[in-house]
């Protein structure tokens, strides 16, 4: 290729980039650039620039932005949890009756033999409603708390301690998300693990109220917090950190040069890695929750004493598969919703310029 041809191609490519930058149809994949909505803390956070790009449907950290994040959470959690109801049903039965449902394969065979293929969908309604409400709070409030907590810190501190910000924001969000989820989770476990109790949510809900009162819906709330808060802390902090590392060390080009599809693939990969760790961290509490909702006379201590250390890990294999896939799909759907709704999507956290210059100056001083 001649030098004139190279120069021509270079100019043409630059022109195309300029056209893309100025196009009114550009997506939200470039860093968001909008004015902070209330205070300059969002600018100082180092977590994400509060800026809006031409073509964005809302400003970063605005009320509309948080509301749309909640919508993304509804879709990501409601759809994915409902899709894996058959595996969840077998997992719950494995946990509460390991003698009958010895492993995943046996669990499916016994369930289909006794109730038919339709029986594998038991509990889909409370699952869909409960996890949609949980997703609304989990993702929507996470974004609120992340902006709020990072805004309390100066730019360099927010960057240096960003993992702690992720952990605190996700724990705060999940605290409220589980209050929304707990009643539906209790109904779901009863439907799935107590033969003859009820086949649908409409049948199970009034029966639970009549027999045990409304308190039964929150009997498993504390163990649910014990399961879901560590899970969500790992889910968000591990995802954020993994995404950052993938773009830094694995993806061969900067994020802003990746297509929408490429970015979503990276999102899926980071989500799956986070999901594996989530499943391991939260599994013992998940077993306890299933047992508590099955037996109204049981306590956390009696369950742990009966099952033993090995018993609380029953069903970990299918849960790793289920939660890994779930978490990856949730992040994929959540990010895809942001693309679809043209929402700001700030890149992973980057070191503030002031911090970079200070560290370079300190390094230079040491080398003298």
TrEMBL record:
Sequence similarity: Belongs to the mitochondrial carrier (TC 2.A.29) family.
Species classification: Eukaryota, Metazoa, Ecdysozoa, Arthropoda, Hexapoda
Sorted UniProt keywords: Membrane, Mitochondrion, Mitochondrion inner membrane, Repeat, Transit peptide, Transmembrane, Transmembrane helix, Transport
PROSITE patterns: SOLCAR
Residue ranges, compositional bias (Basic and acidic residues): 353-368
Solcar repeats: 64-148, 161-245, 262-340
Record localization: Mitochondrion inner membrane
Gene Ontology CC: one annotated term: mitochondrial inner membrane
tRNA-binding found in the keyword field: no
Organism in which the protein naturally occurs: Papilio xuthus (Asian swallowtail butterfly)
InterPro entries documented for this protein: MCP_dom_sf, MCP_transmembrane, SLC25A3/Pic2/Mir1-like
Record-level GO BP terms: mitochondrial phosphate ion transmembrane transport
Source species, domain of life: Eukaryota
GO molecular function list: phosphate transmembrane transporter activity
UniProt topology in membrane: Multi-pass membrane protein
Spans annotated as Disordered: 349-368
Function: Transport of phosphate groups from the cytosol to the mitochondrial matrix.
Protein known as: Phosphate carrier protein, mitochondrial
Pfam family, one: Mito_carr
